[in-house]
UniProtKB/TrEMBL annotation:
Organism: Microbacterium laevaniformans
Pfam families associated with the record: DUF8094
InterPro entries reported for this sequence: DUF8094 (IPR058407)
Residues covered by the DUF8094 domain: 290-582
Protein name: DUF8094 domain-containing protein
Parts of the chain that traverse the membrane: 173-196, 245-267
UniProt keyword annotation of Membrane present: yes
Keywords: Membrane, Transmembrane, Transmembrane helix
């Protein structure tokens, strides 16, 4: 009976394992579906619309084969179209469920002889890829993003490319069938071994039966084949153990081979759909644009900025710095390079890029577009701006955070709207903040704007006042009889940059210029620069009968509350450095 059960188990094992293997081989349908897109013409770019990428469910995989370097990038469809404006390209779209290609002519192409715009390294791309001869990359893009494919941006784009999507075909019972079949196989082996053991034991001596022949003693002195047979025959226990080992090894080997081919889609998904946890929601206005950058994109841009400025600092090259700096940040750097080797000058610190604490992008689809970033290293806050689709993002203002203000900021995936410079909805319009604060630096508590600004959390205001008092005291000890030292502050030439907070306030970045002027009180007096190598280097002279004016640039970030708020304007961060020095008129 044991042999019957063993054979039954072997049959069931063969059926189950065979069915499981068949599901993973001959019975399994195609796991992907593909579409080949052929392109004619010599346009240097191919733009694959998000509708084509999402014409099938699931992730997308792009495959391009072309001799030479192949380039691909993806980003928001509107950004890609804006970037492609001066170039001709082939637009791959979906029309009535069918993929179509349309040639798009260039608008305002670059002048003849001008350098072509390269797609490599653009700050607009959310990601980019480059490979020689064959490019294969998996993607998972939503409908509002598109894919750009090219070679070098000058030569014709690849003539053929393939998109593929997973079909979702699974074999959820292949794994269980193979496992159950293996179990039945093991059970069959055990039952078979037990049957063999039982059969052998049943052939031993029995209590009843025919009389046994009389045995005779064996002569141990006899040599020959009989003795050799008796002494060499293994015991029954040894035979049983040896066969068990031979039978068990194939069973383990078969199970191991079968299980190695079972992946996650070979098992039924019994877990329920996870329930998302509730989180604080942000209501986004319907007409609000998409954020200028994503968190990952912003971090990559900051790394590029930091690396480029570091190269410029090492070479003291203003032109190299201008690739990633603009406005007051660039002006301060240009002066810094002139003074790097002058005694008494402290060089500006490197622009940090990580770790990033905050990315606050402007929610705007046009240009120029801006984002604020806070870097944990040095607690630096940056204002970063892109002037047009083809320009890199550049730092326009850089400051060190000095306030522990708790601001209600929108998350990076939502972004913040830009505030008009003359907005009447804030406690002070952004285009008036710089002039108002400059008046406070000049007149102190007697300023008409002093009550609107928080002075208790403003170390910069105290720093300026103490520095001026110290310098004036030193000047009066030697020059009060023959000259004058005066101070002034005014709004800088840069336009303010303002991004809204969720409590109807705004972060406002402005620039203030401070100046001190030394002039003689009579025509017989000459102002000498014997102990001021910095001003001497910037002016190119060591004395003047009319005096000198030294200008400092202050890059400032404020939190400006709404007009209805009882809060006062708070300084968030500042940086100050020498900007210029000239002979007074």
């Amino acid at each position: 009976m044991r042999f019957v059960w063993a054979v039954t188990a072997f049959v069931l094992a063969a059926v189950m394992i065979g069915a499981g293997i068949a599901q993973r081989t001959v019975l399994q349908g195609p796991r992907t579906e593909s579409e080949t897109i052929s392109v004619t013409g010599d346009a240097p770019y191919i733009l694959i619309d998000g509708s084509v990428l999402n014409s099938h469910s699931g992730s997308q995989t792009l495959r391009v084969q072309e001799a030479g370097t192949i380039f691909a990038s993806y980003g928001r469809t509107a950004d890609l179209k804006a970037w492609l404006t001066p170039s001709s390209y082939t637009h791959v779209t979906l029309d009535g469920g069918a993929t179509t290609t349309t040639a798009v002519a260039a608008k305002n192409p670059p002048a003849a002889g001008s350098a072509p715009i390269t797609p490599v390294g653009s700050d607009l791309w959310l990601d980019e890829f480059q490979q020689d001869d064959v490019l294969i990359t998996p993607l998972q893009l939503p409908a509002d993003m598109s894919l750009l494919v090219a070679t070098d941006g000058v030569k014709p784009a690849p003539s053929s490319l393939t998109l593929s999507w997973p079909t979702g075909a699974t074999t959820p019972w292949a794994g269980p069938l193979i496992v159950l079949g293996s179990i039945f196989l093991l059970v069959g082996i055990i039952v078979y071994v037990l049957g063999v053991r039982h059969a052998r034991r049943s052939r031993g001596p029995r209590r009843k039966g025919l009389p046994m022949p009389v045995t005779e003693p064996i002569d141990v002195a006899v040599t020959g084949a009989d003795k050799g047979v008796i002494s060499a025959t293994p015991s029954r226990r040894q035979l049983t153990r040896g066969k068990r080992a031979l039978l068990a090894a194939p069973a383990v080997g078969v199970a191991a081979l079968l299980f190695t081919g079972c992946t996650a889609d070979a098992w039924p998904q019994l877990a329920g759909t996870p329930t998302p946890t509730a989180s604080e929601s942000v209501v986004v206005p319907q007409d609000q644009g998409q954020p200028a950058v994503t968190q990952q994109q912003g971090e990559r841009i900051l790394t590029r900025i930091s690396e480029q400025v570091a190269k410029a600092d090492a070479a003291k090259d203003p032109a190299a710095a201008a690739l990633r700096l603009t406005g007051s940040a660039l002006a301060a750097r240009e002066t810094d390079y002139k003074l790097r080797d002058v005694a008494g000058h402290t060089a500006l610190s490197a622009v940090p890029d990580k770790p990033v604490k905050i990315i606050l992008p402007e929610a705007y689809g046009g240009w120029p577009r801006t984002f604020f970033a806070v870097i944990e290293t040095g607690d630096v806050i940056l204002s970063v701006t892109q002037e047009d689709p083809w320009s890199p993002y550049k730092v326009s203002r850089e400051a060190e955070l000095v306030s522990q203000a708790s601001l209600n900021l929108a998350p990076s995936y939502v972004g913040a709207i830009s505030i008009d410079p003359d907005s009447p909805f804030l406690a002070l319009a952004p285009n008036k903040v710089a002039a108002a604060y400059a008046d406070i630096l000049t007149n102190g508590d007697s300023s008409a704007f002093a009550a609107q600004f928080d002075s208790t959390n403003d170390p910069f205001r105290k720093l300026v006042a103490d520095n001026r008092a110290t310098r004036l005291q030193a000047f009066n000890q030697t020059g009060a009889q023959t000259g004058t030292l005066t101070y002034a502050a005014s709004a800088g030439p840069d336009e303010p940059v303002s991004l809204a907070t969720l409590d109807s306030g705004a972060i406002v970045a402005v620039t203030v210029h401070e100046s001190d002027t030394v002039k003689p009180t009579n025509t017989d007096t000459v102002i000498k620069l014997d102990n001021n190598a910095i001003v001497q280097t910037l002016t190119g002279v060591n004395q003047s009968s009319t005096g000198f004016t030294t200008t400092f640039v202050d890059q400032l970030f404020f939190f400006v509350p709404s007009q209805s708020s009882s809060k006062r304007i708070q300084l968030l961060g500042y940086s100050t450095s020498i900007l210029d020095a000239k002979v007074a008129p």
